[in-house]
Batch of 2 targets.
Target 1
Amino acid sequence: MSGRIRNTPVSSNKSVIRRLGGQNVVVFLIVVALFAFFCIVSPNFRRYSTILSILDYSYYITLIAIGVTFPLITGGVDLSIGTGLICYSLIGGYLVVYQGWPVWAGMIVCVLCGALIGLLNGFLVGTMNLPPFLATLCTMMMTRGLGSICSTGLGIPWPTAGTEGGWFRTIFKLNIGDLKLPLGFLWILLLTALMSFILNHTKIGRYIIAIGSNKEATRLSGINTKYVYISAYVISGIFAGLAAIAYSAIFASVYPGTGAGFELEGIGGAIIGGVSMTGGVGSVVGTLIGVFVICILKTGLPFIGLQANWQQIITGIVLIAAVLIDLSRNVKGRAINR
Amino acid sequence: MGDIILTMKGINKSFPGVRALNNVDFELYKGEVHALMGENGAGKSTLMKVLTGIYKKDSGTIIYDGKVVEFSNPREAQQAGIVIVHQELNMLGHLTVAQNIFIGREFMKGIRIDDERMNDEAAKLFKRLNISIDPTEKMSNLTVGKQQMCEIAKAISNEAKIIVFDEPTAALTESEVNELFEIIRDLKKKDIGIVYITHRMDEIKLITDRVSVMRDGAYVGTLISKDSTKNDIISMMVGRVIYEEPKTESKVPEDAPVVLKVENLNAGKLVKDVSFELHKGEILGFAGLMGSGRTETAKAIIGADPKESGDIYINGEKVEINSPRDAVKCGIGYLSEDRKRYGLMLQRNVAENSTIAYLENFLKGIFIDKKKENSETEKYVESLAIKTPGIDQLIVNLSGGNQQKVILTKWLVRNCDILIFDEPTRGIDVGAKSDIYKLMNELVKAGKSIIMISSELPEILRMSDRIIVMCEGRKSGELRIEEASQEKIMHLATMWI
């Protein structure tokens, strides 16, 4: 090369990867530390049944968090997933309980409804150029109302275990004799692997990251950004639909008017897990780990005598810490640019 | 020179209220570098955006490779072989070099993206172009020059027949410019037609074959580069030749009061032990290579970046400046090199941008006194000759030179006596450039003092009363204008490299 052109140092790139990997490891250690802390402080916490209940209550949050990771990486957000999951569960449950539909059909309805609302979000953001916050705030309100209308304002009990159609609850918790197996966690791991693959190794994943990096540049690269947005929000919607199934399977009844706030736990988990609010950066594995910080706090704090309100305050503080980490990482990134 | 590859004839394009292109003709041969020149807002970029399908033309014909074409989006143009290397680089910082080059046409292995193959292909491509860049490097880690080379590589891999460069050298260092020119000469040999939009006169003879000039959205004419002089081109561009005379001696008296004194300033790696004095009514030039610490010094002075040590005196009095707010209170106004990012609220209008730094002066109770705001702004629009349809025009619609004047207005409204111009004429065309020069001379005559950071040596020599040269974060020398020359400055600027 005759020294005409200088070689670019490669080391900085590797350290970026290490740093991203580093955050996953750090958050994972926080999960372990939190768990250990609660185990030590509260004897009641160290029971198999506690671990089971942490997992039970984590599924629906984890699912919406995995889903919302995709809009977040485009630089957007999806607020409709919380009220959405309740809405889909109500619609599906209504058809199953009052219309005699088979449970599997009700489950498919949940996912389809999610995909539809995702499509609407994607259309509003990608085609109509609405800001994501605004677009999904609107669908958030719409789904809340829609759920109440469809269920005529009543709570809906999906079939309980042991009754006809109750089999669907075993998707998430399998009972073999006295032993209860948290089967749902297996699905979560599989879905995490699948979505991680989609994000990192397929076109749509690549374009979602690209849009989060620089929307205009992506458009000028000849990519149809409209479809990329729609895909990101449909993914988010489908996962809200899956979360609806998980929610129905864990809780005895689903009540209209609830669900607001779930989305914040999901988004919070994703951000603790290293997804950048400004887009372009994030991983599904990180999101999974991040959600568990929130879920363990949620289950663990009551064991040391701190009730729900305290849990929210502490979750808020954890979130601030996570965002500060994100900011400092951005500053470092900028320093490299210069 | 080869055959004609592109003919644009009678192109018209209007935006609401503006006739952007008025019956423009343009012609390009294979293997030719064809410069497109004109003041900002003359329509160069618009013409190229029409060509590549970013804008739709109102009328006219485009004949490309023997066929009449009309591209409805950049992708179609790209597929046909016409690519723009944009002025503001359009790179995806979070992706790797190879991922950027093949964005939109990834190699696939089933549904999986074949990143290994993309890295291989990118490496081959770089080898062919004699560029050494690691394809797995993250794009945001590259310098602007390298990023640009990636864009060129991307264009080549698209089998481009026409490459449009939109002010490619605006942000490059000198050695990077030379690398770029070598690549462009290479592309010529490959029979690729090149449109080269630039503001830099010296590049015309260096790299281009012909030069077409546009003015106010209309085509003025085409010259053969080697047969034309700088003045020919300038007079075509502005229709008039005005230039501020270069300074040969300083008119600032030796004993003019010191308005700003900086002592042993340290801040980060690029500001080490910097001391200097700024006299009243003086233009103090800051010369040096890119990354020599000039902007960083300015930012440390105005408190935008934290300083580690050092004292600052204003009119002999020691002051503490820990934030830009403090600096403004001390009467220091900073005009950033990156106007759009640090200087302006692009989506707000001229009046709002002018008064933002001194809003407390425009209050009536708790309300903003719009009348006062407007009348004050009008005053400056007139005295600085800001070209705008009205003070309610959005900044984003003004040309670079006029945007610069609005930032200046902001500091003048605030009564700043010390003005720091960082690359005052970057991206500004010749006509507006001399406007800015004239303004700066008028300002110092009126008793203001100016620090001017500039990478263009002619600008430094034309404007400064005194010149400070920086190298590797340190002051490497100080020259009076009477003794300064390009050679002396370059010698000081590279003293420790």
Note: DSSP finds 17 helices and 24 strands in chain B.
Target 2
Amino acid sequence: MRDFDFLEPASAAEASRMLLDEPEESRLIAGGTALMLGMRQRMLSPRRLISLGRLEALRGIDFDAKEGLRIGALTRHAELAADPAVQTHYPMLASMAARVANPQVRNQGTLGGNLCYADPATDPPGCLMALDAQVVIQGPDGERRLTIEAFLVDYYTTALEPGELITEIRLPPPAEGDRGHYARHLRTAAEHRPLVNLAAWVRQRGHGCEAARLVVGASTVVPTRVPQAEAYLMAHPPSEATVDATAELIASGITPLSDARGSAAYRREMVRVIARRSLAHLFALPLE
Amino acid sequence: MSEHRIEVIINGEPVTARVPARRLLSDFLRDDLGLTGTKRGCETGICGACSVMVDGRLVKSCLSLAVQADGQPIDTIEGLADGETLHPIQECFINGGGLQCGYCTPGFVMATCALLAANPRPTTDEIRQALNGNLCRCTGYTQIVESIHHAAEKLHGN
């Protein structure tokens, strides 16, 4: 690991100014679990690390029935998984957070750091996209909000401009009939990074779905919603046939990655399999 | 390269030190303080041999900077035994054969401390989940899991 300076701003505004001083040479560090790996392998060699560790304003989780959920960007995955309000009102999110990486990384890695690193082979972004989350961004010109769709741009690339950082993640309040299910596929039980994941969220009304957000992650460069599958699911009453057809539409609606971890064909098939199981689970349907 | 004065509490003892920004927590413990019970294994965040507790949270010290731990208590494998008397978890690993070469063992014992503090009587499945961040290339894990069951019984009864 190359030498660097370690700076500890006292506010998000100061962190933003420090980032702007030398934008090419600076990186933010939150938990640091991913950043340390990148720096130790010399894929990244920033000369300045700007630590968010002292920014208490970026911590904490608050729920309000009208406003929804606010998750401070420095919230660790383990804290998200254990939070009673998250478990009660967004069980899909708690269940996802309980499975990220491994226990040690969940105790140190943060949700904001995970989103800013924008590694495709991870869990939180797709789940947050299915829950219609927004990131709150602080920059030199004030604050702005982006959806996860707008925030994640490409491999390890976000929409953050120089001097910007995420301060919190916001989720809309849950409504009657909201249900979600997060599923992931690992090549072996010992792996820590998902090969494929699917976040399925629906708002049920009577026998049908009034809204649906179906997001494939880890097998696409950035998490991908599949609108044609969502439309099909909303147009058909839940049944085994609907589940099968929706799973097919999800699998055929993405452009899977193909690399040493899995071919495009294998990933597409795994997407279909976990989509079918997830949707059946969501509608409490028995599967063959 | 910046240098930092850090104050930490290692196994209950206050320690003040000067560290360069790039000093990893694992290197700080081993090379600066001589606490070599914490092992460097894969050095890529996979194996968990470097696991320690920072402010009560189990973390991988090869993925942490020493400066990040400033102001916090750190517990390592050296803090478990009471003089010559081993901690019940250590005893159970020895008696249950929960190790072979022993290199990964400090990490497993620290992971077990974290697990049993949060969940005094874990199921086998919960034990296996809690060990997901630790690798052992010798034992095949069966006797590690059994040792942890014994430790839970010993510490927290039936």
Note: The mean pLDDT of chain A is 96.
